[in-house]
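Hi there. Long-time user, first ticket. I'm pasting a complex I've been working with (about 453 residues overall). I'd like to know whether the download I got is complete or cut off, because the file seemed smaller than I expected. Thanks.
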Amino acid sequence: MSTIEFPQDFVWGVTTAAYQNEGGVKEGGRGESIWDRFSHIPGRILHNDNGDIACDSYHRIGEDISLLKELGVKAYRFSIAWPRILPSGWGEVSEEGLKYYEQLIDGLLEAGIEPYVTLYHWDLPQKLQDEGGWTNRRTAEYFKEYCKVVFQRFGHKVHRWITLNEPWVVAFNGYYTGVMAPGIRDFSAALGAAHVQLLAHGMAVECFRSMKLPGEIGITLNLCPKEALRNTGADQEAAVRHDGYSNRWFLDPLFTGAYPQDMWNWYEQQGVTMPHTEPGDMEYISTYIDFLGINYYNIDYTKADDSVWPLGFRTGFSGGNPMTYYQMPVTPEGLKKVLKRVNEDYHPSQIYITENGASYQDHPDRNGNIPDEARIDYLFTHIQKASEALAEGVPLAGYFVWTLLDDFEWNTGYDNQFGLVFVDRKTLTRTKKKSFDWYAKVIRSNGAELKHM
Ligand code: IFM
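Hi, the file is complete. Here it is re-exported in full:
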């Protein structure tokens, strides 16, 4: 048994995302998103799965809120699907789309659960992709307009906003490796997509502030410490570059108003076409944010490899650690490292762990129970490290588990189960796993009953 102190106002929550949970993709006037298009291209998603039905949360608001109430979370982080609000990405607003989220937000508030709303969790309207998606600067303007509609409607009810979720994934998995929507393979395009997203974020923050709404706004980054796989100079240099590629490329512009010079030089030396920037962009991007959201899953181990252009390294190794089903090394100490490092190097006013969780293969046993001890162990060790960081001065305001339900896990379809709740793929029936009850206890005791099962 280990007793851990969390402040009374510490926010315990759980996170989901629209395309991964809602389904109902053709309902309520919703427009097509890049994930609808991409997931229907044969061979792009494991088992050719898609999010057409997902967890059917679109039709199960009441059921999902009941689960959240039983879990006892203080906050629920979910995302709004841009194509439900503006089916073409800009122009005509769908009242039906707004009504859907209104019902969800009102239901949460009635249940005493605070909505934390992500404005973009990867489901770009396809019509905007047809015009270049995140490589087109106009997408940043359209994003601001979409946010304005949402702020106008919900700004008096929602007081925590997250502009973008994991812009690194959108840029580099969507435009460089192409394993995610829109499936493009062009490194320069990825750098462009990163820049336009950062610009969109800054414009949305400015718009929020200009509307004089109550509440706070921030962004969520996926941050992993990068460590050398072997104790060699080449791997150590590669780890620094890896950190520049995925962590500093976003942290530096947001907090210092400039891209990291070492990475800019490196890419230029490799012959990469650098992103087009305009005067004023970096001021927008570095506009003050009320908090930084960090999604943490694992440490990345980096091995130098000159044959990989333009990065010069490979990753995806276990580093000698146990792996989750998704092949992520289990490295709780990395969470403390990342929290302390971000605090020391960038000084955000507040930090939320906006996602943390693990995928394992879970199925009900003969008695209908789902004893997911490995997930409990994962969450236990990570919350412990979070509390250590808090005790050492990191301004950590909350912790959100990824995720409530076994949902559509992007290019791996329904194969990776991250939920505290099992979802039967045939009936969509929800069954609570053992980790659900465990997390409920942690929340009820404000962390005091955190214990290894
Ligand atoms: O499912 C994703 C989520 O959409 C973004 N962060 C990582 C999760 C697990 O892979």
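A couple of notes from our side: The mean pLDDT is 97. The two ends are 9 Å apart (CA to CA).
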